[in-house]
Amino acid sequence: MQRKAMVIGATGLVGQHLVKQLSEIYDTLIVIARRPPRYINASMRFYQVNDFDNLAEIFASIGADRKTDAFSCLGTTKKQAGSDEAFRKIDHDYNVGFAKLCQDKGVENFFLLSSMNADINSRFLYNRVKAETEESIMALGFAQLVIFRPSLLLGKHKGRPLESLGQKAFQLISPLVSESLSLHPISAKRVASAMAMSAHDIYHRSKYRTESVINSTEIIDNKQMLAMTRVKN
């Protein structure tokens, strides 16, 4: 069976690692972004979108189906977006819109990058919107939805000075911090690995399953991702 994957948010901190890893396990990788990802190979099909409001037009020419796994690493910050409304539009509306279009194509497995602090009752907009996005996509009823909630992401954060400052502080104390702690920062590459590993595991389990999975949601927290991607000596 020819395996296909589809990704948005492919040029972000996690997404740029994810496309490289997915290209090694899928026969075809569909990338939808405003600009080409850093890593490109022969298995990729790149669709450029100038405005995610017009994503439906792009989807009309995309050959996605029930054999396609969908991944979203799309996200921003209020500072980058420019306002509360713009932030919500990107983090919630675009993600949910993408999920709905995937569902219309028959996609059964959806993998969403969220945040450890997603909380519908949080006083912080970022945390509330992450939780609202999770709930909106859960309500669509994918056969299998996997949500990843990382802690502070380690990597080069363009335009995110506070997160960069947090990384520098962590580097000073990292030798003293155990990965068993749920708040332990995690590299973007390891989050991408956890997403790819999860999709690969679901694929192999499906070959031995006798009944279809209906509306299954799994949340993989930061501690689980650290454990999944720990390098064994």
UniProtKB/TrEMBL annotation:
Transmembrane segments: none annotated. Residues 6-157 form the NAD-dependent epimerase/dehydratase domain. The keyword Membrane applies. The keyword Membrane applies. It comes from the Bacteria. It is found in: Membrane. Keywords: Membrane. This is NAD-dependent epimerase/dehydratase family protein. It comes from Psychrobacter glacincola.
